[in-house]
Amino acid sequence: MVLNYIWIAFFLVAFAVAVGKTVFTGDFSVWTEIMQSSFSSAGTAFEIAIGLTGILSLWMGLMKIGEQGGVIRFFGRLVSPLFCRLFPGVPKGHPAMGSIFMNVSANMLGLDNAATPLGLKAMQELQDLNTKKDTATDAMIMFLVLNASGLCFIPISIMMYRAQAGAANPTDVFLPILLATFISTLVGIVALCIKQRIKLFDKVLVSWLLGMGAIIGGIVWFFSSLPKEQVELYSGFVANFLLFSVIAMFLIAGLRKRINMYNAFIEGAKEGFKTAVMIIPYLVAILVAIGMFRASGAMTVLTDALIACVNAIGVDSQWVEALPTAMMKPLSGSGSRGMMVDLMNTYGADAFVSKVSAAIQGSTDTMFYVLAVYFGSVGVRKTRYAVSYALMADITGSVAGVIAAYIFFG
After folding, report:
1. 61-81: per-residue pLDDT in tens?
2. pTM, whole model, 2 decimals?
3. How many CB atoms lie within 10 A of CB 282?
4. Please, what is the Cα angle at 275 between 270 and 281, to 5 degrees?
5. Residue 264: which residues within 8 A CB-CB, separation 6 or more?
6. I need a surface site. Which of 99, 154, 194, 368 has the fewest CB within 10 A?
């Protein structure tokens, strides 16, 4: 419902600004520009979806091989000590643990839409343990905040969008996103541990969090000490090496299990194709609305006002035009992606503001979408404190994304 009002607002504000331009400046060409933008934006949305079809088919096919090859179960056992601490209300060995891990894994690999079916399955299994079916449990809220914070180690879709937009090095946003998403997730976990009275200083929990923090901190420190050219070179190498390593791991596991990897891949790829086709209407709707909003001059009015406010307090304002991505992020994944794509089309994929937008986009997941779909799938109406804690993680991620972009590209 919120997205519905925002979508309508884009059109109405664009219309109002265009009328104002016509009345006060005599600019009649704005109407032509708005309509041309609607047609070109619709075409751009379809082209993006076609490109995304191949990427989603590839990675959902590979994920199916990894699942049947036992890689997912292996990592499930590996992270079991951590998950048992974060979800004390879920019995050890319960199917929900495996589904939670598979969902988190899909998010970590940046397989946006591929994570949703796994998350729905996890919610259904958590609901089986729920004694008050209309009220969210602590485990559900922890799971939802983990999803909303969107821990992502390999932002495949964002790198794909950058490649489509002609970025010289589409993977150079890998490290800023890694830093921002880790901070967002860490804040969400710590805050919820305090709220749910989970023993925050448990030896296993502290070891995991400090270990991950040390690894990511070391990576950021190393790359921040390098010249800009080497940062882009090495960050691209790390991202691509990890991607290829994941593929090799899945294939080796499939060989060991002697599964029919071709059939498994086709099965998963079909799911990826269906998912990609399903998002075409959403991309068309949001990109056309944003395109008309920008063509009318409304986006310029908004960003100019924000830039003036930021300059007035003496803060650098290069990042301000990426702020609409952050504002849309909690409400709509397609909307925030549309904002990011629109910036890349307007300023170029390698412009600083485009990289800031990409860092914000990868820092968290779509909070309200996640809460609405996951809670709605199991009939939970009383979400308790889920919204406030998920929003806190979201805002933290956006701020961290801006700071990370300045560290690596500023």
Report:
1. 887 888 788 876 676 677 778
2. 0.69
3. 18
4. 135
5. 61, 64, 65, 68, 254
6. 194
